[in-house]
Amino acid sequence: MSIFFWVVLLYLTLLMVISIIKSRAIKSQDDFMVAGRSVPTYKLVGTLLCTWIGSGSLLAGAGFAARVGISELWMAAGAWVGIVIVFFLAARVRRIAQYTVPDILELRYNKWGRILGTIVIVIAYTTIVGYQFRGGGFVLNLVASDGLDRIVELVASTGLLGEAGQIYLREHIGAILTATFIIAFTAFAGMLSIVSVDIINGTVITIAIVLAVPIVFFSLGGTEFVALNVEPIKLTVMGGHDFLWAMGVFFPTFLLLMGESNMYQKFFSAKNEKAAKTAVVWWVIGTIIVETAIATLAILAFTHFHSILPETSAFHLAYENSEQIILHAARFGTEIGLPIFFGLLLICAAVAIITSTGNSFLLAPSTNITRDIYQRFINPAASEKKMVRFQRTMVFVLGIVAYLLLTQFRTILDMAFTAYTMVGAGLTPALLAAFLWKRVTTAGGVASIATGMGVTILITLMNSISSEPVISTSYIVLPAAGASILVLIVVSLLTQPDPEEKWAKFYESNVPLSDVIEEKR
Hints:
Radius of gyration: 23 Å
Helix content: over 70%
Order of helices and strands: HHHHHHHHHHHHHHHHHHHHHHH
Low-confidence stretches: 510-521
Distance between the termini: 58 Å
Structural class: mainly alpha
Number of helices: 23
Mean pLDDT: 83
Largest sheet: none
Strand content: under 5%
């Protein structure tokens, strides 16, 4: 076993120990879902950063940057702009003091807004969790391939698996083990464990990624290496693409962040409005720094490793494997001047990114099903213990579904764009309208959610049964979000305005909105 394997094992053990300790503090659904609404600013910054910087950035974003250059930052910039806008909403969102985004949707619209919003989140977030499992599989295959082979051999020796089963297990053992860890970690202590370990994860991610860039840059030869080896077009803002392409990759992340249920749930976890708003400032700064560093490191490292002839060295990285470039750079960092300590730190950062994002995006839909379906419609009188027990069951069920979704997409980038669009087109227009447009009506909001979700699912199904994509995943957001926004506006203008008491609560500056949810019910 390599030193990388033991470091990863030690890091995961540390995270699990923290989760088990925190699980003893779980007394109510407030503790499990929103960490008792007591999270201070520094922890909120860490958990927001870790949630956003997931496999979508580490694998899909890095692979994208390796292929197209710095124009990949159009995708990252969607989040940056979204976070700036969120700055002006954070305090108001925290004041609502609910548990989930569907809580807000029912408060402003009706129960159908809650139900449809829950469906959107469950589909999108289980997809996102699925590609965290795939990312974890990449890490384990890279640092512990010998150990994984031994596990497969051990299982095969029991005679429980046929030849086909052994082949499947050998190909997917890394993802299966990752799924097992993330599901168990999330089920133990929910939001309490997530915000506790994310301050550690956020520190590791920032230090590893940011410090690796200058080390690799100067070790490879600095500006001379860039001038001689990096394709000039990769250093341009548009990367040879047109504005339509830029908007196609910008809007999925922009719209996702604006409707990101995890973000709202973590705002609800903040100890007060000021903590929520201050955290957003540091969040946007951290996100810009880390995502720019990931893209830069990916371009530099891929330029080197891809240029190596495959017949002369095992360090070559093929174009089709570009999504693994950060992991490849960590494992074989000495080839690009990265000391082994930083390689180990990068691997830990990868583990931190994958596990923290998987935990958060698994907790959110389990919260939605528990709060927005089970408690709201099936068992309103459920005790606190029963609610926590039911949500832990949902964590397990949704984890299995997330794993099964892995088979439906070719790449992590495809999964990311589809999930981003599901939230961005299905939730964001109606959610933002609740805070920003008094004229939006109940019918308009509900119709918008249904339209955004429906168009995204339709295009995804058409792409899955076609040999060639009907619409590239890079462009799905344009028709889906366009249709959702159009329906929102047209239906709202064609229907009777909602009474003032329906929307006024979203504009009041000092009236706690948690008091009005019972009126709604």
